[in-house]
Amino acid sequence: MPFFLEQCLCSVREAIGNIKAEVIVVDNHSSNQSLAYLEPLFPWVHFIANTENLGFAKANNQAVAIAKGEYCLFLNPDTLVAEDCFEQCLVFLRAHQNAGGLGIRMIDGAGQFLPESKRAFPSAITAFYKLVGLSALFPKSRLFNKYSLGYLNPNENQVVDVLAGAFFMVNSKVLATVGGFDERFFMYAEDIDLSYRIQQAGFTNYYFSGATIIHFKGESTRKGSLNYVLLFYNAMRVFVIKNYKGKSARVFSFFIQVAIIIRGGFSLLNQLIKGLSQSIFSGLTRQKGQPQEVLAFANHEEFNELSNFLTKAGIEMASLKQVLPNTTTASKLHQKTTLVFCQGTDFSWKQVIAQTEKMANKHLSFRFHAKNSQSIIGSDSKETSGEAMANPSPF
User: Fold this and answer.
1) From the CB of residue 152, how many other CB atoms can be counted at a distance below 10 Å?
2) pLDDT tens digit sequence for 319-344
3) pTM beyond cutoff 0.70
4) Which residues are within 8 A (CB) of 228 and not within 5 positions of it... i.e. 6 or more apart?
5) Which CATH class for the 282-390 domain?
6) For the chain, which residues make up each domain, given as ranges?
7) Are the beta carbons of 189 and 239 closer than 8 angstroms?
8) If DSSP codes are grouped into helix, strand and coil, which group holds residue 297?
């Protein structure tokens, strides 16, 4: 669905307000008429339409080939950025002349910090700990979670090995020196490989905590699925073959193969138990016997816009109430509450992101809607695909 990208571009539009920038979107042969929906909404964006899915690396390299800026930012379509995000990153990079690349502090659509915001280069044992789940069980362990650097403070700037491809800013001269993404990687590990080459060339990679973005993540792939396990394993295998030699490469491959069997077994069992079905935008629909409360963080104009939006979409709700931005606490909300953050005149993307993290609570659902946009999006878990709706639906 193109709706996550729509909201992303709405946030990017605000973030480049004071910056001379070009925005390039590469569509990897979407089957849902995404470009037909998006191009009229964003005439200032350069869209590239591929006739087949070339993968993450090739698509990004297509954009780099025509980009003219001093810096390049690789940004996932399922992200939301604050108005001052890019400016802060550029200030940091220009103050650190040895900087190769810059990654950023990320939270998911439920407001939880994403540990993959900062990572170390994988080794045989760290990859094994990740794939069998020990890194998730002991997130702050220097031993079990060295891969995600869980022992480092996520609220402080850090020198790190690996930057996440979801938000990867790099000086164009550095990129020209080391080359773009290695196109042998279709999905996963291409950011590890590029980070590795940047470091090998003598530059420093930084994790920047001075700005936070939302990365819904589940839109890219279902992390608990067998498909994810296989894709991740294959990407790691390619990285090992390319960058590790001799005994270390053989040990790495052995640990990964053991881990793939264990993790793959858990994934199959999980799919059998949970199934693959999902309701569309269940956060805004009334479920029998489960009262729903929907609170819209919006001023009066934006609240009326949202009300009309939902009415035309035929959404049934027990209640829709207006909350002025910055005026409520999570502890006072009903456990079935859905919060719709309406970015606009009185509620910036920066405030939306901060409020999402501040109110992070397993009983709450967050949805996001830019002023005058045609969609609402959200995701209750980084492990599953998000939910979206548009009015009117173009499909």
Assistant:
1) 16
2) 788 888 766 555 566 667 889 999 99
3) yes
4) 221, 222, 267
5) alpha beta
6) 3-119+152-244, 282-390
7) yes
8) strand
